[in-house]
Amino acid sequence: MSPDTAKMLAQGVAEAASLGIGAAVGGAAGAASALGTDTNNRQMHWKDYTETLVACRKNPTASGCGTILKMAGVKSQILDFMAMPTANVAVNTDPNGKVVSYTLLDKTSNQPLAIMEPMDFGAFRSAPAGIQALTLRVSPQYSLDMASAALEVTAGNTDKALDAGTAVITSPEYWRDAALGVVGEIVSVKAVSKPVPGSTLKATVTAEGKVGNDVFNDVNQTARPVEQANADQPTLIADRVNAKADATGKMLPNGNMADAHAEIGVIQQAFDSGKTSGADMAMNVAGKDVCGYCRGDIAAAANKAGLNSLVIHAVDDLTGLPKTYYWLSGMKSIKERP
Questions:
Q1: How far is it, in rounded angstroms, from Cα 166 to Cα 164?
Q2: Residue 290 binned pLDDT confidence (cut-offs 50, 70, 90)
Q3: Cβ contact 22:183 at 8 Å
Q4: Out of 16, 80, 177, 200, which residue is the most buried by the measure of CB atoms under 10 Å away?
Q5: Among candidates 67, 309, 338, which has minimal Cα distance to 209?
Q6: Does the predicted model carry a pTM greater than 0.90?
Q7: What share of the chain is helix, strand, coil (3-state, %, to 5)?
Q8: pLDDT tens, 225-234?
Q9: Cα separation of 232 and 258, whole Å?
Q10: Do residues 282 and 309 make contact, with C-beta atoms less than 8 angstroms apart?
Q11: 276: pLDDT strictly greater than 70
Q12: What is the C-alpha end-to-end distance of the chain, expressed in Å?
């Protein structure tokens, strides 16, 4: 198939998605997937994924199998700090330790419900809890693929859009529902393709850092806006975090901007803006006290950023009383002031 033909087919699938064809069987659930194209990118229900994975292992050169095989990874670990109201989360990594996908797990049994690539997971977690639940448990697979095709076309990823579109048009379930005329509400192309404005999950931790007259704000990783939660963007302390993860055999936060805690995100923003070299930073943390993961990581990030000093105002989780941490250049961890 020529590139032009592939592009035309992918665009056609996207236009079909925008007309609500993805809203078959499951009614509102299918409509939710089509309407939620900007929050649900490429994704697969677990049953569909495992069946496709078996087929791809037998025929790895088949359409879409490169992505399917890559998503399997070689190691998986449940990350408690990334759990959402609708699902627990396991991270899947390749032989080099790079995150290749996330598995969404039932909150009670930890049985797999769906699997998503990092960008897809970042978009999914910003969706309202109701849409998340419908996507995980009710929406037919072809409606998820239809939404994926539309978003990939919008992003200019013709090959991935074609893979998702092929999954739609080869789905017996889709053709059965199309024959029955089960079609949802019409959705405009503009509504389908609009960018995600940011996470809709409520922040549980907020951090505000000040360097002179410049102010930098961030939130806990599950509430961070999608456009900022980039798993491919390493933090200043990525090497440190990866080394600790290799030594302990555990997946740890703060190595990239998809899982960085709010305090690390603030320091990263200030560094990226060129404001940290030789500077003094004051930070206010609200919602929860600075966690154990972050006390050494904050010091390492401040050192890497070239800060001169850092003062953090927080609140004790147990007593509710204010507390202050400090760091000076050369210190290996932040310390609490008496």
A1: 5
A2: very high
A3: no
A4: 177
A5: 309
A6: no
A7: 45, 20, 40
A8: 877 888 889 9
A9: 8
A10: no
A11: yes
A12: 70
For residues 218 and 224, the answer to whether their CB atoms sit within 8 Å is yes
Residues 218-227 as b or e (16 or more Cβ within 10 Å = b) = bbbbbbbebe
What stretches of 6-133 adopt beta strand conformation (E)? Answer: 43-45, 75-78, 88-93, 99-105, 112-116
Instruction: Round to whole Å and give the CA distance between 207 and 215.
Output: 10
| C-alpha R_g of the chain | 22
Tokens for 207, please give them: 């951090």
Nearest to 119 by CA among 198, 255, 232: 232
Give the 3-state DSSP-derived string for 164-188, with helices as H, strands as E and coil as C.
Answer: HHHHHHCCHHHHHHHHHCCCCCCCC
What's the DSSP call for residue 83?
Answer: -
Measure the CA–CA gap between 148 and 126, rounded to whole angstroms.
16
**For residue 18, what are its two tokens?**
């925008």
Q: How far, in Å, are 42, 221, 275 from residue 272 at the CA level? A: 30, 18, 8
- 70-126, pLDDT tens digit by residue? 999 988 888 888 888 888 999 989 898 888 889 999 888 888 999 988 877 877 777
Q: Which two tokens stand for residue 257?
A: 């901007």
Other CB atoms closer than 10 Å to residue 80's CB: what's the count?
7
Q: Are 226 and 196 in contact (CB under 8 A)?
A: yes
Q: What residue has token string 């088949």?
A: 62
Ranges 5-9, 158-162, 167-171, 298-302, most confident: 298-302
Most confident of 123-132, 137-146, 214-223, 280-289: 280-289
Cβ neighbours for 193, distance < 8 A, ≥ 6 positions apart: 18, 37, 38, 150, 151, 154
How many Cβ atoms are within 10 Å of 318's Cβ, its own excluded?
6
Which two structure tokens, joined as six digits, stand for 213? 């007259």
| Cβ-based neighbour number of residue 266 at 10 Å | 29
